[in-house]
Amino acid sequence: MERLRDALTGGEAGVALFVDGPNVLRDEFDVDLDDVLHAAREEGRLVVSRLYLDEHATPGLIQAGEARGYDVRVTSGDVDVKLAVDATELVLSEHVDLLAIASRDTDFKPVLEKAGENGVGTLAIAPGEHGRSDALRNAADDALVLEEPGGE
Fold it and tell me: Which residues span the membrane (predicted)?
């Protein structure tokens, strides 16, 4: 089975990216959605790229996410809960090699832990050094911080 999967994927890890829009796409971080995609693609073949937004998201933001290839999910409820449930469900029901979560919210620590318990690698993507969560960084197998404008 693994050889078949490697043949289908070119041997690259299958990466599932989940982006917590309200906590990442803030003026103080100035995050570019393309940079988040690039960070996940550096880890392997992107099989899922979801951007979660709340009901206050502008049509322009929704359109920008879709134009970059994200599966945009807009929820009237708590974005964190929807993202956490969806990410956990995906890890438990489908084969992915790496779960990448872009957020600064410690609510996703249990999701990263559950993925790890099920043999899925984990990556915490922070929207900038001052948006980094030590709890997420410590729960994940690996972590990275998106470079802030003017940063080196």
Answer: none
Q: What is the mean pLDDT of residues 94-118?
A: 93
Which whole-number Å values give the CA distances from 1 to 6, 45, 99, in the listed order? 9, 18, 21
Element of type H or E holding 6: helix 2-9
Decide: 72 and 62 in contact? Cβ < 8 Å: yes
Spatial CA neighbour of 44 closest among 150, 134, 121: 121
Q: Residue 109, Cα to own-chain centre: how many angstroms?
A: 13
Instruction: Output the six-digit token pair for 15.
Output: 């990466």
**Which ranges of 19-148 would DSSP assign to H, the alpha helix?**
21-24, 33-41, 59-67, 79-93, 109-117, 134-139
- CA dist., res. 21 & res. 33, Å (int): 10
The closest of 63, 70, 58, 69 to 22, measured between CA atoms, is 58
CB 143 within 8 A of CB 124: yes
Q: Are strands 14-20 and 71-75 parallel, antiparallel or unpaired?
A: unpaired
Decide yes or no: CATH 3.40.50.880 for domain 14-146: no
pLDDT confidence of residue 10: 56
Tell me the C-alpha distance between 101 and 84, whole Å.
10
